[in-house]
Amino acid sequence: xxxxxxxxxxxxxxxxxxxxxYTEGFTRVTPSVLTILSMIIxxxxxxxxxxxxxxxxxxxxxxxxxxxxVAVFGMVCFDESRDILRIICLLLIVSGIAGLxxxxxxx
Length: 107
Prior knowledge:
Layout: H1 2-23, H2 29-49, H3 55-77, H4 84-103
Helix pairs in contact: 1-2, 1-3, 3-4
Pfam families: Multi_Drug_Res (PF00893)
Organism: Mariprofundus ferrooxydans PV-1
Membrane topology: Multi-pass membrane protein
């Protein structure tokens, strides 16, 4: 269950990272509230996952999911660069996340 918490925490990390763009410096109420809620949920799920997953592994996976998710979202929704080297780098992050899961001794 800890890995599910961690994956969902990573998705909410993407949500708040993207949400910050829409808050306009936290001057827009609805995007600000949604962003802050995403932050709270993300941190809560990360802390729940860390009960069973080592802190270094959990944090690396959490940030990796966030980094890849936000970068892909940027490519799809904000027309950011889709350069092959950028995509290869993102795939390296994904392989690192998968590797950490494979070598983890927790559930």
